[in-house]
Amino acid sequence: MIFKQLFDQKSSTYTYLIASAEGREALIIDPVLENVNQYIELLKQLDLRLVKVIDTHIHADHVTGASKLKDITKCSTIMGDHTPAESVEIKVKDDEYINLDNLKIRAMYTPGHTSDSYCFLMDKQLFSGDTLLINGTGRTDFQNGSATDAYNSIFNKLLKLPEDTLLYPAHDYKGEKVSTIGKEKKQNPRLQVNSVDEYVEIMNNLNLKKPKEIDFNVAKNINLGA
């Protein structure tokens, strides 16, 4: 298997490239529009063929590169079936599998950060979008977000995965690249609560600023960045 973690400085977004070394088929998770040429160059260097691109949710802080990648490579676009993006070719359901040569990636519906948020699990690697972050969790105060839904997604789904599951988030603002479910259970300050009410109280009092250009980015991303 080939695995690359790429970072966008402007939005602190992690993009992931996964490929089967056997069939040279590749998949990209959460591409950033401005970095599409970088992805294409990397695919050429590694002699890979991009066949699928996934967005974990409608992002507010950057424009997705999904449409541009599709235009260049003819790859299929994928999102969870709760997405408002009508132009997505493949809408996966909770617990549905995405195949990439001999690799299998499980879609997990994890609403809370947004109403369309999905995580994707490949063996012991969890691509958690903005649902669960390293030492944090995704905010729940816009795009039909819900702190209650987020609690259920995190505590009743993600934290029930094996503790050695590797956590790869869509963002990090402090240079962290990977964690584990076990580490987040013990050390993530947002997860040290005893009830859903405690979690909702924390999330409802974060008082975070809205992302810059949120309205523009969301509008573009509903059209997959086109």
Can you summarize this structure?
This protein has 226 residues and is α/β, with parallel strands linked by helices.
Architecture overview:
There is one protein chain. This protein is of the alpha/beta class and 226 residues long. The chain has one domain: Metallo-beta-lactamase, Chain A, CATH 3.60.15. Helices cover 23% and strands 27% of the residues. The chain has helices spanning 36-45, 66-73, 147-156, 181-187, 196-203, 214-222, and strands at residues 2-8, 13-19, 25-29, 49-54, 76-80, 90-92, 97-100, 103-109, 118-122, 125-127, 132-133, 136-137, 166-168, 179-180. It has a 6-stranded mixed sheet, with helices on one face. Strand 8 (103-109) and strand 9 form a beta hairpin. Helix 3 (147-156) crosses helix 5. The model has no long low-confidence stretch (mean pLDDT 97).
In DSSP terms (H or I, runs of 4 or more residues), the helix count works out at: 6
Widest sheet, order of strands: 1-2-3-4-5-6
CATH architecture heading: 4-Layer Sandwich
What is the gyration radius calculated from CA atoms? 16 Å
Q: Helices, strands, pairings?
A:
Layout: E1 2-8, E2 13-19, E3 25-29, H1 36-45, E4 49-54, H2 66-73, E5 76-80, E6 90-92, E7 97-100, E8 103-109, E9 118-122, E10 125-127, E11 132-133, E12 136-137, H3 147-156, E13 166-168, E14 179-180, H4 181-187, H5 196-203, H6 214-222
Helix pairs in contact: 3-5
Which labels suit this protein?
226 residues, alpha/beta, Metallo-beta-lactamase, Chain A, 6-stranded mixed β-sheet, 6 helices, 27% strand, globular
